[in-house]
């Protein structure tokens, strides 16, 4: 089920996107982009790369919680998830990104 990408301009002047699942929960957040066009390219990278399970890397934080990173074909990080209490939660988050990003609307900053 499609979600939506929400683009915001940060206090640092950079653009960030968050992918929200159909239930409005944020499942992936980007790093900062200097231009709106670069941010939109990042969204397209999520749509493309999230369809390849090999692009997801699950990591464990110091406190034991897990999170995942989505990487582009060049190895650069495209987005990062929230923290999960379990590996199964992390894997479900990856599936959510793959499903939510396809056909997701893009909400531009006001």
Number of strands: 7
Intertermini distance: 25 Å
Q: If classified by CATH, what would the architecture be?
A: Roll
**Which range best describes the helical content: under 10%, 10-25%, 25-40%, 40-55%, 55-70% or over 70%?**
25-40%
Biggest beta-sheet profile? 4 strands, mixed
Q: Rounded to an integer, what's the Rg over CA atoms?
A: 13 Å
Q: Strand-and-helix sequence, N→C?
A: EEEHEEEHE
Strand content: 25-35%
Strand order of the largest sheet: 3-2-1-7
Mean model confidence by pLDDT: 94
Given helix and strand content, the structural type is: alpha+beta
CATH class: Mainly Beta
CATH topology: PH-domain like
Count every helix, treating DSSP H or I runs of 4 or more residues as helices. 2
Oligomer: single chain
Low-confidence stretches: none
Shape: globular
How many individual domains? 1
Describe the structure.
By secondary structure, the chain is an alpha+beta fold. It has a single domain, classed as PH-domain like, CATH 2.30.29.80. The protein contains 2 helices and 7 strands. It has helices at 36-49, 87-101, and strands at 4-9, 15-20, 26-29, 56-60, 66-71, 77-80, 105-107. The protein has a 4-stranded mixed β-sheet with strand order 3-2-1-7, covered by helices on one side. Strand 5 (66-71) and strand 6 form a beta hairpin. The longest helix has 15 residues, at 87-101. The chain starts with a strand and ends with a strand. The model has no long low-confidence stretch (mean pLDDT 94).
């Amino acid at each position: 089920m499609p979600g939506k990408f929400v683009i915001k301009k940060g206090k640092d002047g950079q653009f960030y996107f968050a992918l929200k699942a159909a239930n409005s929960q944020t499942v992936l957040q980007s790093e900062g982009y200097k231009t709106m066009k670069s941010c939109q390219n990042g969204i397209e990278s999520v749509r493309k790369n999230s369809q390849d399970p090999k692009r997801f890397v699950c990591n464990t934080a110091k406190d034991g919680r897990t999170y995942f990173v989505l990487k582009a074909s060049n190895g650069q990080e495209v987005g990062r998830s929230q923290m999960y209490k379990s590996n199964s939660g992390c894997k479900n988050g990856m599936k959510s990104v793959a499903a939510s990003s396809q056909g997701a609307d893009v909400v531009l900053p006001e």
